[in-house]
Design brief:
- About 70% of the residues lie in helices and about 5% in strands.
- The protein is built from 9 helices and 4 strands, in the order H-H-H-H-H-H-H-H-E-E-H-E-E.
- It has helices at about 5-35, 45-75, 85-90, 95-125, 130-150, 165-195, 205-235, 240-265, 285-295; strands at about 270-275, 280, 305-310, 315-320.
- The protein has a two-stranded antiparallel sheet.
- A hairpin with an 8-residue loop joins strand 3 (about 305-310) and strand 4.
- The protein is globular, with a radius of gyration of 33 Å.
- The termini are far apart.
């Protein structure tokens, strides 16, 4: 049994904190749903991104429900089965609820990291750039599955800090941190390089690109900070890592939603960058129109003067016609 906060108190605290962040992630999901569907036809909706957003909500909800059931079982229903107190229940990693909730965590991690890698590929348009992130993603999948299998086969007296299990958990955390930081760094760098190439009359477009870079880095830092904290606590054998891992579920969703909402808000400026395309307005056309108007206005107007003289009349009728217009004196 690890050091730090008691397991029963930690389980209760992690459920409360996860619930708070989960509520915030639901609000962010509603904002994401609005940004993807507001004033858009069905064929214009980015369905893959919408599906990912829904899947993140489903996994976060499922994890939250299982966590509540686990707390209820440990503190209320099964308390009589553990004479040493609820801490014994929460220390038992072979519990079915423990395996299920961490299965949801592994699936959401793979989904979130996969989306970041996909964004990186779309922006770079090169499979070679994402080879290393893909290999790291495979490492996340392998270590996560092995860790879950080891937990499911552990005895009732085994803890999460057992050496056979801890090595796979540590490798899982390290792999997902490396995947997230590398993919997000490549993505932000590519966007930064693109916006630096925008010069002259497109300065306004440059100003709308940088908020996207900042929100991408903010999301990566937010998620990575939670993972780093969980990894450090786990390596130190502190029970607080359970609370941080539980909070990482809604944090992953929040980091994903905040990027989509930022992009949706940026589209109002008619120059924005998305995870699938980069659009910069061509303002030179509109700015050249007044120049063309002035050019046409400066062209000289040719005037032809014609004289008609009739011998029987004393007066002379003179008329001016512009570019071949008939003279009234010829009638």
């Amino acid at each position: 049994m690890g050091a730090g906060i008691p397991l029963d108190a930690g389980a209760l605290m992690s459920t409360v904190l996860e619930g708070i962040l989960y509520g915030f992630s639901v609000l962010m999901f509603i904002g994401t749903l609005w940004s993807l569907t507001y004033k858009r036809r069905m064929q214009d909706i980015n369905r893959p991104i919408l599906a990912v957003a829904i899947m993140l909500l489903i996994l976060s909800t499922a994890h939250m429900v299982v966590n509540i059931i686990r707390v209820e079982d440990g503190l209320v229903k099964d308390i009589s089965m553990y004479p040493d107190g609820p801490s014994t229940y929460f220390a038992d990693v072979s519990q079915q609820t423990y395996v299920i909730k961490h299965s949801f965590y592994v699936m959401q991690t793979l989904l979130a990291d996969g989306v970041v890698i996909y964004r990186c590929y779309v922006v770079w348009q090169s499979i070679w750039i994402v080879v290393l992130p893909i290999l790291l993603w495979c490492s996340v999948a392998v270590t996560g599955v092995i860790a879950l299998y080891s937990v499911s086969q552990a005895g009732t007296d085994s803890g999460i800090f057992a050496k056979a299990l801890a090595q796979w958990v540590t490798a899982f955390f390290a792999s997902t941190i490396a995947t997230n930081l590398l993919s997000s760094g490549l993505l932000a760098y590519r966007i930064w390089v693109i916006q630096r190439s925008v010069t002259g009359a497109q300065n306004t477009a440059r100003g709308t690109v940088m908020p996207i870079v900042r929100v991408l880095m903010d999301a990566a830092i937010l998620y990575s900070a939670a993972l780093f904290t969980a990894l450090i606590l786990f390596v130190c054998g502190n029970n607080g890592q359970d609370a941080v891992v539980d909070m990482a579920m809604p944090i992953m969703s929040i980091a994903f939603y905040m990027v989509l909402i930022r992009i949706a808000l940026n589209k109002k400026d008619r120059s924005y960058i998305s995870t699938t395309s980069i659009s910069i307005p061509r303002r030179m056309t509109s700015e050249a129109e007044p120049e063309r108007s002035r050019q046409y206005a400066m062209k000289p107007l040719q005037v032809h003067v014609s004289q008609f003289t009739h011998e029987d009349r004393p007066s002379t009728c003179t008329a001016e016609s512009i570019k071949g217009a008939p003279s009234p004196c010829g009638v």
